[in-house]
Amino acid sequence: MAQSDIERTLALLDDPRFIALRRCADQDVLLWSNLADLEMPDGLSREDAWRLLTSIRRQTAFQLPWKSYLDIGYSTDTWYATTRSMARIINEFEGRCRAGSALDRVTQSFAGSNQLMAQWEIDLKAAFAWEGIEVDGARIHAIFSGESTGTESIDRIIENVHDILLDIDVLAHRRISPGLIENLYYRVMDGAEDV
After folding, report:
1. pLDDT, tens only, 93-126
2. Are 58 and 79 in contact (CB under 8 A)?
3. Chain centre distance of CA 92
4. Whole-prediction pTM value?
5. Domain of 68, in residue numbers
């Protein structure tokens, strides 16, 4: 690289406007649309600024390991660079979720316990009440915990809701649509159409 090229590169890197661009890219997710609000260094187009920032960000990038992120439409070769705020959040997650942490101890103390389903049982009882159907909480608990299987349509609904809740992680990634709502309705009412 010629000395004049080095001088031009250093001048660009030292330009306060380029420093402001870098700071935006380092502190938060910088989108193409954000460039319209930022001042460009002299002689640098938005396209060139984007290419430079992309090249710099790729130097500290890593491939996303989360399958759920890929499920929403990103390709398997997606790269991303952590911003300062993202790094703080990741560190916070690591600190709170590592083995032996307070959260881990609380979760382990509930492992195998029906207390994990208590809120779901309360919500289901409230949903029945909203529909004008009185269902004893002990009846819901017995079916949720597997202690009982009822023969009435209400029991079938409770079993269906329990099965749906076991799929909650998969359902959480689905886009809400009329088809999804219809599918959930038929799953809840399966075998209990007389209710």
Report:
1. 777 777 877 777 777 776 555 566 788 888 889 9
2. yes
3. 16
4. 0.43
5. 61-110
